[in-house]
Specification:
Layout (H helix, E strand, L loop, with lengths): L9 H51 L6 H6 L3 H27 L8 H9 L11 H16 L7 H18 L4 H20 L2 H13 L4 H22 L15 H38 L7 H15 L8 H8 L5 H20 L7 H20 L5 H21 L2 H12 L2 H20 L4 H12 L1
Length: 458
């Protein structure tokens, strides 16, 4: 009688071992690609920012991104004509865009186009991620911002990051899941390099671009974000965008007032979303009414912007200088409220005139002005208006921008990485959560609305 041999498990173990080895090889390759994307995007953000600074020097003779204070001392004709000349150059680039396939309503691409490209079922739509169109969009945005357009630089940076991240995915013929993850790497790297905030970059990719991802995606996205931050810091240094005073032990009264600021921030965010989302269509209707090509809108919009800037030079450009001035207590509460509506109108004008640029910086700007005015009024009865100003300016920045963009967690992290204050970050989280819930109940954040408009028109 012979005993039957037990079945051998060696082939299965060998297959399992080979599968694990292959998975590690794939993961390592994606991590290396992610690190390369972080390096490329970091360099691209440096070049983009330096180009904007060169434009500001050319159009306004403004050093170190100080457009507002420089414009206040320039002759009126100079202030008026700078956006007109810049707008004319942007118009020429838009006309080139029309000739290469942008249609009869050409515009620079933005974050919403990246979101739209990711959302097509089973594939990535490459129209908005073409390298040629990405470079043209970057040029339009850099010239627009250099000439004083009242928009932001972070949105174009995210688009540049996504375009650069899409190239290796296309060359290596990666599947849709891996390509989407690399788009997240590009977006995270752009935010990280722009704000020196790698944690916020990772969360921005999760909240805005991808909206969901696997645990395995976190590593490559984090690597890309950190590498981009290190790259940007190697040129610009580790100095934060804003000189934020140290905020320690804020009184309980501040936290009790935070929900009220959240409600006000929600109202302002809804106003910004409503006007900014409808501005492009309004500009196109204006052009159609007067039988003008859309590429004629930028110089006309630049003329209106320049005249507007004679009264409020603080509306020109990215707006970080006035935002820093608000943090420093340079403006009174009444003037800050005026600047809220001036910036809101100026950004709407520039978006409607098809200038390039994003809305992250304008959202921070109007939030800072609202929060600063609120803080002074809260601090007066407590006999500490300066401390309240610093605290609520930061909270207002986070609450309004987070609600406008639909990114409450990443904006809270940006605040934390700027201030290193748990108390301030906690107040921002309360305020932005309330504002975001209210905004979502009324139709959603700006990028979501823009994606719906893009889907409708495609």
């Amino acid at each position: 009688m012979t005993l039957a041999k037990a079945p051998s498990h060696r082939p299965k173990r060998r297959k399992r071992s080979m599968s694990v080895r292959q998975n590690w090889q794939i993961a390592l390759r994606l991590w290396l690609i992610a690190a390369g994307i972080g390096l490329l995007v970091g360099i691209a953000v440096i070049i983009f920012r330096l180009t904007i600074m060169a434009g500001e020097m050319f159009f306004f003779t403004a050093p170190d991104e100080k457009v507002a204070s420089t414009a206040a001392g320039l002759p009126a004709l100079h202030v008026v004509m700078a956006p007109v000349v810049g707008g004319a150059i942007v118009g020429i680039l838009l006309a080139i865009g029309s000739m290469i396939g942008w249609g009869d309503k050409p515009r620079a691409f933005s974050v919403a186009d990246v979101m739209k490209a990711r959302r097509f079922p089973g594939r990535i739509r490459e129209t908005a991620l073409n390298l040629r169109d990405g470079l043209l969009t970057a040029a339009i945005s850099a010239i627009s911002l250099g000439a004083g357009a009242s928009t932001g630089r972070e949105g174009p940076a995210v688009h540049i990051g996504a375009v650069l991240a899409h190239q290796p995915a296309k060359w290596l013929n990666l599947d849709v899941r891996a390509t989407r993850m690399l788009l997240g790497c590009g977006a995270a790297a752009a935010v990280s390099a722009s704000f020196h905030a790698p944690l916020a970059g990772v969360l921005f990719a999760r909240e805005v671009i991808l909206q969901r991802y696997r645990i395995a995606d976190i590593g490559p996205i984090a690597v890309s974000s950190v590498v981009a931050a290190i790259t940007a810091r190697s040129h610009f240094g580790s100095e934060a965008l804003f000189a934020v005073p140290e905020i320690t032990d804020p009184p309980v009264m501040y936290f009790l007032a935070t929900p009220l600021l959240g409600l006000l921030s929600a109202g302002l965010a809804m106003m910004a979303i409503w006007t900014w989302s409808r501005a492009p269509e309004a500009g196109e209707q204006f052009a159609a009414q007067f039988k003008l090509p859309v590429w004629m809108l930028p110089p006309l919009g630049g003329l209106v912007l320049g005249c507007f800037a004679l009264a409020f030079p603080q509306i020109l450009g990215v707006g970080y200088e006035p935002t820093a001035a608000a943090l420093a207590g340079v403006y009174g509460p009444a003037f800050m409220i005026l600047l809220v509506f001036a910036k809101l109108a100026a950004t709407s004008l520039c978006i409607g005139a098809h200038f390039g640029g994003g809305v992250f910086s304008p959202s921070l700007y109007i939030g800072a002005m609202l929060g600063g005015a609120f803080g002074i009024l809260i601090g007066m009865p407590l006999n500490e208006p300066e401390a309240a100003l610093h605290f609520f300016t930061i909270v207002g920045m986070g609450a309004v921008s987070g609600a406008v963009l639909g990114a409450p967690i990443s904006t809270t992290l940006i605040v934390f990485e700027l201030t290193s204050s748990y108390e301030t970050a906690a107040a921002v989280l309360v305020s932005v959560s309330l504002a975001t819930v209210l905004v979502q109940s009324q139709g959603g954040a700006l990028f979501e609305r823009q994606v719906k408009f893009r889907m409708r028109d495609s």
